[in-house]
Amino acid sequence: MIHNKRRNKIRLHSEGKETLLITGFIAAAIAWFCFYMLDHDLGPAWIYYTIAGITLVVYLILLNFFRCPIRMFQGPTTKTVVAPADGHIVVIEEVDENDYFHDRRLMVSIFMSLTNVHANWIPCEGTIVKVAHQDGNFHKAYLPKASEENERSMVVIRTPHGEEIMARQIAGAMARRIVTYSEEGQECFIDDHMGFIKFGSRVDLYLPLDAELYVKMGQATVGDETLIAKLK
């Protein structure tokens, strides 16, 4: 199957509505306080301009964080694995995966900073065969031990050709909520949303060892657009 549509708009993710509403009220209150103090000449003007400026920047970062771009992958989706998240490639290595596969896998990890969109996309087409959440620690997401020790949620997809791919959402030092929309037995497609992670995190992909990679260390990724690998 080939998708020919391109992204057409950007909206705010439903996971951020409550956060943005609360912080919006706080930002408005801070702005009112600053301009009240300025209007009544109650202190150095630069202090209140600085406070108002920092408040605006923080709120704009939150708006960016909770963006939810509408994207369509460009190209054939058969035997294709696409980036499940915006960010940068921080790990490409063979590892022993002991939660589900219990064998050697090729792991590709994408680290998401606070400035990235934190929506997560389904990386390949197929059927959801396993969804599991595991509590854990909150180490910095870019550390190697985060994959095994942090709070995480796994989604295993079986492709129409019988290969199984795991996408693991991992909480970071600031992240305290992982949202996973996938359900076992559900048919899934590239372009579908897999979930959301709040405030700094990563997504690991576990691929067959013979998968043909199209990314390298340090490379920036765009969720649902960057080609990660082709399955044999």
What does this structure look like?
The protein is of the alpha+beta class. Helix content is 21%, strand content 37%. The chain has helices at 17-39, 45-65, 146-149; strands at 2-3, 10-12, 67-69, 75-76, 80-82, 87-97, 103-112, 119-121, 126-134, 152-158, 164-171, 178-180, 187-188, 193-197, 201-207, 212-213, 220-221, 227-230. The strands form 5 sheets. It has an 8-stranded antiparallel sheet with strand order 13-9-10-11-15-7-6-17. The protein has a 3-stranded antiparallel sheet with strand order 5-18-16, with no helix packed on it. Residues 1-8 have low confidence and may be disordered.
Topology:
Layout: E1 2-3, E2 10-12, H1 17-39, H2 45-65, E3 67-69, E4 75-76, E5 80-82, E6 87-97, E7 103-112, E8 119-121, E9 126-134, H3 146-149, E10 152-158, E11 164-171, E12 178-180, E13 187-188, E14 193-197, E15 201-207, E16 212-213, E17 220-221, E18 227-230
Helix pairs in contact: 1-2
